[in-house]
Design goal:
The chain is mainly alpha-helical. The protein has helices at residues 5-17, 21-35, 44-65, 69-82, 87-99, 103-116, 121-133, 137-148, 155-169, 174-187, 192-204, 208-221, 226-238, 242-255, 260-272, 276-289, 291-294, 297-310, 313-326, 331-343, 347-358, 361-364, 367-383, 387-397, 405-417, 421-435, 440-455. Helix 13 packs antiparallel against helix 14 and helix 13 (226-238) runs parallel beside helix 15. It is elongated and about 115 Å long.
């Protein structure tokens, strides 16, 4: 391994200058003899070259063990050039290059190792992890899946590949991730990270009880783990255990007051408890302290929702407009903006905004959310003296949601406005039956209109 570069060239030059004619003849005879060796045999010189190569590999691997990655890489590049199909040398080279920050070169070396030794699991796992880190997720999934199925791979390596697959699938395919994590746990014992991942996967599956249990186990193993604290508060909130969620997140905030996820989760819990006044200052302070957080759409959207709940419609509208500049066709944002506009008396603008929102039914991803937006459009149209649009919106709402006192009152007033006397009377009476004394002002108005409409026969 050491005979390379200038030193090796100088040695060869000196030997050439000392060769005599007899030496040349002897060299020729030796060469000829070598060419006539019986098949399957090797010369002593071949054996010595193999021994030199072996020692060079050992020296390079020793440099790797000492974490002298620069020296190891230089040596391994020469060895890989000398024997490009040596899969173990290619793997060692990729390992050194990756530690030296040369990820593109490392990926090439790992791929060469896989091609040379298909049953060698280490380069497959290394390449898969490297691809995942660099965003080549499909390639990463392919390599890690292949490694996890290699019978020649060690149990630990297969388990590592399965855990990496679970992390890859966690977002887009939680069920596959759960199966991969369970397969890994059959090979090696669970770690605290495994418990946390199982909690996150249960959370994604909306299995709130299992998620809460797993998050609590994680905290028993890793006290004060922020991800587990935020996850536990979220799962408890979804279970409707708001007091417990409040206790968890409030305690965690005392220790990690600047943690983005905790602050956001605390704001969500406080909002669910009707404590918008407690949640808003948290988010405002967090956004003012970090420009990245201020630009984060999720945090901005949560604050806009809290402004809406607290009645600060102007601020809610301002943030909704900022978000719509990034996502101009988001129907949920359009619905939120329209609701903020109608609360400020911007009835025509609200109607136009909400018409745009409900036009993208498929983008809602939830028919009930779309139906609720149709109800908001009906209210805005009623305020804007547009009874025909109001009735159309109510008819659309009725395809996915049952009638409510509010929708029935809007229907009655719209029919009344259009001078549909019998329809208006019927709707007013249905409203009175559904209201049952809970809307005294509107009920008084309905009774007055029924009397007038019936006396006009």
């Amino acid at each position: 391994m050491r005979f390379h570069g200038v030193a090796f060239a100088s040695f060869a030059g000196y030997a050439g200058r000392c060769v005599t004619m007899a030496g040349l003849m002897a060299a020729w005879v030796f060469s000829a003899a070598a060419q006539t060796l019986p098949p399957g045999t090797h010369s002593v010189d071949d054996g010595s070259q193999q021994e030199v190569y072996r020692r060079q590999v050992e020296a390079a691997e020793s440099a790797l063990e000492r974490q002298n990655y620069g020296q190891a890489e230089a040596a391994l590049k020469l060895l890989a050039a000398q024997n490009p199909k040596d899969g173990r040398v290619q793997y060692d080279l990729g390992f050194a290059e990756e530690r030296n920050g040369e990820e593109a070169a490392a990926a090439q070396a790992y791929a060469a190792s896989v091609a040379a030794l298909p049953q060698f699991a280490e380069p497959r796992v290394a390449l898969g992890l490297l691809d995942a880190r660099d965003g080549r997720l499909d390639q990463a999934h392919k390599e890690l899946l292949a490694a996890s199925n290699l019978a020649s791979a060690s149990v630990d390596l297969r388990a590592r590949a399965l855990r990496a697959l679970a992390h890859l699938d966690e977002q887009k395919d939680p069920e596959a991730a759960r199966e991969e994590l369970l397969a890994a746990l059959k090979l090696t014992p669970a770690t605290p990270d495994d418990v946390l991942m199982s909690a996150d996967l249960a959370d994604r599956a909306k299995d709130w009880a299992d998620a809460a249990t797993a998050y609590q186990k994680t905290l028993n193993l890793m006290p004060s783990n922020v991800d587990a604290e935020a996850g536990l508060a979220h799962a408890l909130q979804k279970e409707g255990k708001l007091d417990q969620a409040d206790a968890v997140v409030s305690s965690a905030l005392k220790e990690h007051p600047q943690d983005v996820r905790l602050v956001a989760q605390a704001a969500e819990v406080y909002a669910a408890e009707g404590k918008a006044a407690a949640a808003i200052p948290l988010l405002e302070q967090l956004r003012s302290s970090d420009p990245k957080i201020a630009a984060d759409p999720d945090t901005t959207e949560l604050l806009a929702q809290l402004y809406d709940v607290s009645g600060d419609n102007a601020k809610a509208e301002q943030l909704d407009l900022q978000l719509l500049a990034l996502r101009p066709n988001d129907p949920m944002l359009l619905d939120a903006l329209g609701s903020a506009q109608v609360k400020q008396g911007q009835d025509a603008a609200a109607e136009a905004t909400l018409e745009k929102a409900v036009a993208s039914r498929a983008a809602f991803g939830d028919d009930k959310a779309w139906g609720a937006a149709e109800g908001h459009l009906a209210f805005a149209a009623s305020k804007n003296n547009d009874p025909q649009t109001c009735l159309q919106a109510l008819a659309a709402r009725a395809t996915v949601l049952p009638d409510s006192p509010t929708s029935l009152f809007l229907q009655a007033t719209a029919e009344d406005h259009l001078r549909h006397r019998q329809r208006a009377i019927k709707a007013y009476k249905e409203f009175l039956a559904a209201a049952a004394g809970k809307f005294p002002d509107q009920e008084w108005q309905a009774k007055q209109r029924i009397n007038l409409l019936e006396s006009a026969r």
